[in-house]
Amino acid sequence: xxxxxxxxxxxxxxxxxxxxxxxxxxxxxxxxxxxxxxxxxxxxxxxxxxxxxxxxxxxxxxxxxxxxxxxxxxxxxxxxxxxxxxxxxxxxxxxxxxxxxxxxxxxxxxxxxxxxxxxxxxxxxxxxxxxxxxxxxxxxxxx
Length: 143
Known about the structure:
The chain has a four-stranded antiparallel β-sheet, with helices on one face. The protein is built from two helices and four strands; from the N terminus they run H-H-E-E-E-E. The chain is an alpha+beta fold. A hairpin with a 7-residue loop joins strand 3 and strand 4.
């Protein structure tokens, strides 16, 4: 029996923690902390990219609305009832002459105006950001 006890102790020494292939709790915690730091650094970068993409998407919508206003101007040359709206002061959003199906812009603050000579001014509000295209420029700016 003494021989069996010595044999058991010898086997236990062979299976000690130092000789095992498993990770210790400290090593696992270190890896978790490193991954958390990487996540904290990467999250704002990703969110910033998403916000910039939304702004660019809204700017492209303004270009699309300006193109639709150009088509409205051309159509008004054939339909003389629309000529009164081409004074550069009439908001086509308010007159319901110009309907934007996106439904994301604040229609109460937004405006699309067309002059008789086809110049277009657009001012659209979305979540506190104003997207504008003035009569003389083709560029859309944000404020």
